Amino acid sequence: MPTYQAPVKDTLFVLNDVLGFERYSNLPGFADSSGDMLEAILGEAARVAEEVYQPTNRQGDLEGCHRNADGSVTTPKSFKAAFDAYREGGWMGLAMPGEYGGQGLPYTVHQAAGEYFCSANMALTMYSGLTHGAIAAILVHGTDEQKSTFIPKMIEGTWTGTMNLTEPHCGTDLGLMRTKAVPDGKGAYKISGQKIFISAGEHDMSENIIHLVLARAEGSPEGIKGVSLFIVPKFILDENGNPGKRNGVSCGSIEEKMGIHGNSTCVMNYDEAEGYLIGEINRGMNAMFVMMNEARLGVGLQGLSVSEVAYQNAANYARDRLQGRALTGPKFPDKKADPIIVHPDIRRVLMTARAINEAGRALVLWSAIQADISRSGPDEKERERAEDHMALLTPVIKGVLTDKGFDIAVMAQQVFGGHGYIEEHGMSQFVRDARIAMIYEGANGIQALDLVGRKLGQHGGRGVQAFFKEVGEFCEENRSNEALAPFTKGLKKGLNDLQAATMWLMQNGMKNPDNAGAASTDYMHLFGLVALGYMWARMVKAAQEKLAAGADGSEEFMNNKITTGRFYMERIMPESSAHLARINAGADSMMALSAEAF
Amino acid sequence: MPTYQAPVKDTLFVLNDVLGFERYSNLPGFADSSGDMLEAILGEAARVAEEVYQPTNRQGDLEGCHRNADGSVTTPKSFKAAFDAYREGGWMGLAMPGEYGGQGLPYTVHQAAGEYFCSANMALTMYSGLTHGAIAAILVHGTDEQKSTFIPKMIEGTWTGTMNLTEPHCGTDLGLMRTKAVPDGKGAYKISGQKIFISAGEHDMSENIIHLVLARAEGSPEGIKGVSLFIVPKFILDENGNPGKRNGVSCGSIEEKMGIHGNSTCVMNYDEAEGYLIGEINRGMNAMFVMMNEARLGVGLQGLSVSEVAYQNAANYARDRLQGRALTGPKFPDKKADPIIVHPDIRRVLMTARAINEAGRALVLWSAIQADISRSGPDEKERERAEDHMALLTPVIKGVLTDKGFDIAVMAQQVFGGHGYIEEHGMSQFVRDARIAMIYEGANGIQALDLVGRKLGQHGGRGVQAFFKEVGEFCEENRSNEALAPFTKGLKKGLNDLQAATMWLMQNGMKNPDNAGAASTDYMHLFGLVALGYMWARMVKAAQEKLAAGADGSEEFMNNKITTGRFYMERIMPESSAHLARINAGADSMMALSAEAF
Predict the structure, then answer these.
(1) What number is the average pLDDT over the span A123-131?
(2) What is the pLDDT of residue A552?
(3) Counting CB atoms within 10 angstroms of each CB, which of A203, B280, B422, B559 has the fewest?
(4) Domain count, chain A
(5) Half-sphere exposure of residue A483, counting CA atoms within 13 Å on the CB side?
(6) Measured distance CA(B538)–CA(B473) in Å, rounded
(7) Identified catalytic residue from B22, B441, B470, B545
(8) Which residue in the set B315, B422, B590 is minimally distant from A255, CB to CB?
(9) Which tens digits make up the pLDDT trace of A274-329?
(10) What's the complex ipTM?
């Protein structure tokens, strides 16, 4: 059976020693959650994740979700109690506004804890994750009445949320949408149509489900500019605001999926369901993007989370499994064989996982702080800069951490040999679960296109220039730091490749947009390499400083950070050249064949 | 529902135009299977694969195999009839010796056709594939009586075969084996023990199952040098050579696996089962290696096969799915959207798949010809050279084509977006099936170690030197061929990197074997890049020559080969630098952490 231990010490190192969490006490909630309090919160999150969530993960995969004849959906037996512990612990509202019952702590702390819950049971966290996204959309675009009507119950977790975008014939291209909204003459709308792939669309863990549904209002223009967003509760609220009569929305069927079996992925049928416009008419995508950006960061976190738990189990197995002898001679001559962790090729997997996961965690948390700044920083310039950061890095976090997370889950499974392929050890589940994160909330090819086609040029390239400047200055400032030189050297090489690729895109992407498209996935991964490399340079610097100051029992921990950073620079950063070479190749050979030739 | 069309034209191009199949008419069977006959054989294989095998694939995944209370195993309903068509068509014995009822055609033709069957239904081909391996072991190491007793029925396909190596506590390290063999005083042995992960271990598609079982004879030394190979039939043969009394071997349970559900993967219990020594006592690994090498080439072929069928379905979907508009403006303005094949990032996936699959097919077939030469070439020097080729390339074919095959199946699934994640479209099955090929018959890390630790140095590096010489000479000979220059240039760069890596290994691998282990997976993939690149250079040259000679209706086909070769050189070959950089980094940062730190 798989196990999980939340990496609290690693999170604290990143937040406290690398990112200087305490420096942000001018932001709401930070002062209430730093130091011992931060440690206590993360410790408690770790406990719930390890003791309550994790034991339900494998069983959830085996049981799956079932639609009953009456259209209700039964989730895995153990899920409700685990979710109860989560909401009763106040985890739903950790970073939600106090006025609606939340605890008002930083989003950063929510993300830090979120990693643990998701590592422990990814399918289960989707019920709360989508609720968080729906709350965010209502908070930003809802009326005061909508906020006070829906948000408190959602923050309690007694009601959950969903996002309804996809239809059978349209996923990425939402302008093709057919779901209709007809005014009912009483200020509401009647929503009709079919939505597919709706996570947590119907289930038995909450008293009401608040669907956020994209639909085209009667008389609205064709295409994406005629799409509006509606709140459609499963149960229409009575005069006291309690769930009353059943609304015209129901689950038509449940998808048979490769993984996340514990998540009920529904076909949702809307048949004149009562819905309430949220935000402006025909500006539905605008409102939905609040939810989508939140969800994309959440999905990037899923990539990291599954990668981490898969890695941990591979490491445990590699320490336990006796097979063969070390190439340099027996390490445990008294045993029949050495544990396979003595083999370099097993180490290659484990070190790759650490190098990606530890930097991925830093990237998530660094960006979470930027998200907090963008929401509530006191200085307008700082908020703008943080918004730029989020716009630029959101597709990178989503695309790169989920691609890498899947790769690492596959590598971790490989450590188990044949035992990884049978379901019993749970490694197959990690691979099958991790796979969806590359697809949903915008397939990773779409993330790459968002980065290259929209985010790079936004505000005249302000965001990307600021990123280059920050990384470049870090290298420059530490030029005379000899201990850091091997790291800044690798980082600088990656940055140069990224800047060359950016220049190439500027020169060739305008001329022929296919050149930008042809470069997009490589560019996103090249960006990710540099962003993760920057995280390593900063982590190594922090570790070196801690060691110099007397690491106080954490010497090995800090030395391991430095070694893992070195592994990253030696073995992962060199991929930047291949990405640049591919980008420079342009679109010609990619686009030359006729469609019929494939 | 997934579809499949066997790439007969591509196979014929490789065999006839690139490899010069007709030149080998001095080898047995080649003259009987060239020209029109080759086309007819492959056409018929394609028909059986497309019409008989493929329609059973998805259903086989859904149904899986079931062990009944009496220990018998029921395979998917449609499998028996499909397997009947295969054996009645004579496909089992295509390349088997005529004296035992085979058709005596080249192994090359068997491999060419084998790709189609495996693309159509990988799980089903495992029943015949393991039988082929068992036949090969008996042919090489069996007594005349063993051959005449078992082989004819196996070639008919009325009896099938298995290989029994793995035990719960030992997979790679077979020296730890506990299964025992006690002489019964009548010339046979009583075999007792448990084997796991036995593909086709028990099923309902043949009249008898011939297990080849590794066990330790009583009194034999500990470790790998005390292991012998035994033939253990499910039913002991009666005096007429027909299946008689049930032997003491039974299926204890069936594994729940991530994929290849149609294959019955069994825990096999041996309880004083009657077994017959094959080959010399304590030389079981020697005998098993015949089977294992055959199986490794078969598994490499599985990588290619699943990659090809996954690619075909992604290409079809990309042509059909309307979503969004081309970056360069609408291509089908009359439709609501363009098919997604207009998008460069979709093309990236499809072209990558073509570039790997077409070169992978060439590598498999080039090596199959070498296998034919090594078995029956008239010239001793040529046989030796072909044996060197097989020793060197077998781990590359197994490791690289299965890693790449899985990657491409994942990319092909990605083309489907959310529709790829639900089981309905069959793309998840390709990913789940492809995954095992990286694991069984020696996990790919073991292939890499076999290449670096054993094959490179064999006969003083004779094999690798010959490979370098051949590829180098190809570049040299074509130096003045301007049309080929972009291809030989890329190939030469890859070869230089590979030679530098080989040199590094010679200098640093001896000094510290961990350096060799740390380099092994990268070295294997670097080798694969160059081997596939060499195939592309040869394919491009052949296509250019065909075009120059008047390609006779195949102009587009030949031009597409050249374009795909260009894509390979521009976008895949550049990975060689990253591999070399990783190899040069050595083992230090990989091995530095204590086992407890993970």
Answers:
(1) 97
(2) 84
(3) B280
(4) 1
(5) 13
(6) 12
(7) B441
(8) B422
(9) 999 999 999 999 888 888 898 999 999 999 999 999 999 999 999 999 999 999 99
(10) 0.97
Instruction: Answer yes or no: is A73 within a domain.
Output: no
- Phi-psi label, residue A317: left if phi above 0, alpha if psi -120 to 50, beta otherwise: alpha
Question: Please, are residues A377 and A386 in contact by the beta-carbon 8 Å criterion?
Answer: yes
3-state secondary structure B415-448: HCCHHHHEHHHCHHHHHHHHHHHCCCCCCHHHHH
Is B20 part of any domain? no
**Is B579 within a domain?**
yes
Which positions in chain B touch A63 (Cβ < 8 Å)?
none
pLDDT higher than threshold 90 for residue A507: yes
Q: For residue B169, give the DSSP letter.
A: T
d(CA A109, CA A29): 9
Q: What is the pLDDT of residues A91-100, one digit of tens each?
A: 999 999 999 9
Give CA B14 to chain center in angstroms.
Answer: 18
- Number of C-beta neighbours around residue B312 at 10 A: 22
How far away is chain B from the Cα of A1, in angstroms, using its nearest Cα? Answer: 14
Among the partner-chain residues B337, B339, B436, the one whose CB lies closest to the CB of A595 is B339
Contact B236, B244 (CB under 8 A): yes
Place of tokens 């022929």: A512
Distances (CA, A) of A137 to A149, A225, B539: 14, 19, 55
Distance, CA of A342 to CA of B53 (rounded, Å): 44
d(CA B320, CA A391): 32
User: What do you get for the CA distance between the two ends of chain B, in Å?
Assistant: 44
Q: What are the φ and ψ backbone dihedral angles of A288, each rounded to 5 degrees?
A: -65, -30
Q: Give residues with Cβ within 8 angstroms of A323, minimum separation 6.
A: A337, A338, A339, A340, B170, B171, B172, B173, B176
Show residues of chain B in contact with A347, CB under 8 Å: 518, 590-591
Backbone angles phi, psi at A451, to 5 degrees: -65, -50
What number is the average pLDDT over the span B505-521?
96
**Is B581 in Cβ contact with A423 (below 8 Å)?**
no
* DSSP per position, A527-540: HHHHHHHHHHHHHH
Rounded to 5 degrees, φ, ψ at A230 are -130, 145
Is A441 part of the annotated catalytic residue set? yes
Could you give phi then psi for residue B202, rounded to 5 degrees? -145, 135
Q: How far apart are CA B123 and CA B62, in angstroms?
A: 12
Give pLDDT, residue A319.
Answer: 97
Mean pLDDT of chain B: 97
- Beta bridge partners, B264, equal none
Q: Which of A445, A486, A72, A44 is nearest to A246 (CA)?
A: A72
Percentage, residues of chain B above pLDDT 90: 96
Cα torsion for B512, B515, B518, B521, to the nearest 10°? Answer: -120
> In this complex, do A571 and B563 lie within 8 Å of one another by their Cβ atoms?
no
- The pair of three-digit structure tokens given for residue B171, joined into one six-digit string: 């997979």
Residues 6+ apart with CB under 8 A from B413: A435, B310, B314, B420, B421, B427, B428, B430, B431
Tell me which residue in B341, B574, B593 faces A560 most closely, judged by beta carbons: B593
In this structure, what token pair is assigned to residue B13?
Answer: 């191009």
Q: Do B570 and A587 make contact, defined as CB atoms within 8 angstroms?
A: no
Angle made by CA atoms A57, A63, A67, in degrees to the nearest 5 = 125
User: Which residues form the domain of A539?
Assistant: 458-589
Total residues found in chain B within this entry: 598
pLDDT number for residue B54: 98
* Structural domain includes residue A533: yes
Tell which residue, A249, A237, A240, A91, has the closest CA to residue A162.
Answer: A249
Nearest to B450 by CA among B226, B252, B296, B290: B296
pLDDT reading at A1 higher than 90? no
